[in-house]
Structure formats: C-alpha cells, structure tokens
Amino acid sequence: MKNTRGTISEIKQQLQNDGLTHEDIKVLRQDERTGVQKLLQQYDQKLEKERQLKEQYEQMKVYEYQLKSKGYYSVAGIDEVGRGPLAGPVVAASVILDPRDESLIGINDSKKISELKRNQFYETILKCARAVGIGIVDSQTIDEINIYEASKKAMKLAIDDMEVNADYYLLDAMKLEGLQAPQQSLIKGDQKSVSIAAGSIVAKVTRDRLMVEAGKEFPSFEFNRNMGYGTANHLKALEQHGPTPYHRMSFNPVSLYKI
Question: Domain RNase H type-2, which positions (predicted)?
C-alpha cells in the first residue's frame, strides 16, 4: 500500500500529539506496515484507558451530583492520613470541588497512585478547588488523646481552615460530632467520591513533605523514605538511638524506649 502519512517516526509523533483527524486514522488503519499497526494498537489502548478513567471519574462524582440535586452546592470531602505510623503527625484535608471540573480525571485514593501523580493532582487541587483546608495534629497530642480522637481533631481543624463554609460533608469512614451541616460517612470513600479522594491526596502530600523535613533533622530514621512507618531500618534506628520528638510514645514498640 502507498505510504500516505510519512515515516513511522512521523506517524508516532502525530499520534502522540493528537495531530491526526478521524479520517487520517481511518487511512492509517489500511496501512500494511507492521510498525504502523503496532502504533495504532498502542493508540487504541491509550484511548481505552482514557475512556475508562473518564468513566471512573464520572462514577466518583455521583455523590456530589446527587447532593447538588438536593440543593447542596458546597460539598466538602474529608480524609486523613497517618494513623498507623510510629512517628509524625496525623494530617487531614477538607476539599470543596466544582463537580463540573474535568481537571482531575484519573484521581483516586492517594495510596493507589504514584508519588508523581499525587504531586500533580495536589497542585491542580490547590489551583482549581473552591476551598482547601488542612489540619495537623502532632505526635504529642496523639499520645495525649489517642490516635482515633487525634484523627477526628485533624479533620475538624481542616474544616475550620477552609475559607468557604461547606453545606454538606462527605467523610471517609468517619463521623464527626458538632458539625454545622449534614454529613455522610462512606466506607472506602476515597475510592467512591472525588471530593474525598482530593482530600486524601492533599493530606498525604502535606504529611509526606513534613516527614521529608523531619528526615533531614534525623537522617538515621529515614523518615523521608518510610514516612514514619515501622520499616526494618526505622526499627533498627529506634533501637540504636531511641525515639525522636516526632515519635508517638504511646505506640508499640516506641513505648518500650520510654525514658
């Protein structure tokens, strides 16, 4: 068949840049070159992945759309990170999005996406969200009131930190007392609600960056890598050096090293 669209390298560049029309693609499908057909197969896979991500994104906006239909226009999604680590704070974030926004396609539970993607979504959320609030509760307070109460405290601090008052709250597997608007607790909410997923990402990126800074202060503990979780190297450093001011003294095995 006659080569009507240039070299394989040129076609690859055009496909990557979305520089081909629907008619161009139809012509290329008749191209008998193996390299061209391989490029088209990759292109089709890319389109299918984009379709799936967009479908997932729409599914994750169902709660927000349902609430909007009932007259709730400022829905805050709230999530926390850092319940399990031996060191560092528990951090929560509260986020109000515009459900019409398409800039967060591909968002999910912060633990299910790469660090690069998390950081990209973090910047997008801060730029596009109607409101973002962050709550941080340190390890000393965690020891005083326990991690469950500290998680709730962080969530309330995040709500108070927003510049916009929410008229409805979506929370990830948690209920809070004393809120001034209705709330709903969703199991695995960071996988079901785009607002909670946004809160999850803001909270995790915020906490990770705090732990990176703590790691500079105490490099032996590798907080920049383990984020305060009890890895083998972390436990070894704990045994050799004892706890830092970032450690939760009420957590085992940190409690074994109380002075």
Answer: 73-259
Q: Binding site, residues?
A: 79-80, 172
Q: Which fold has domain 62-207?
A: Nucleotidyltransferase; domain 5 (3.30.420)
Instruction: Name the token pair of 254.
Output: 């940190």
Q: pTM here?
A: 0.84
Known binding residues for a divalent metal cation = 79-80, 172
In the chain, what are the domain boundaries?
16-58, 62-207, 214-257
Residue 104: CB partners within 8 Å, gap ≥ 6?
Answer: 57, 97, 121, 124, 125, 128, 194, 198
Q: Distance (Å, rounded) from C-alpha 117 to C-alpha 156?
A: 27
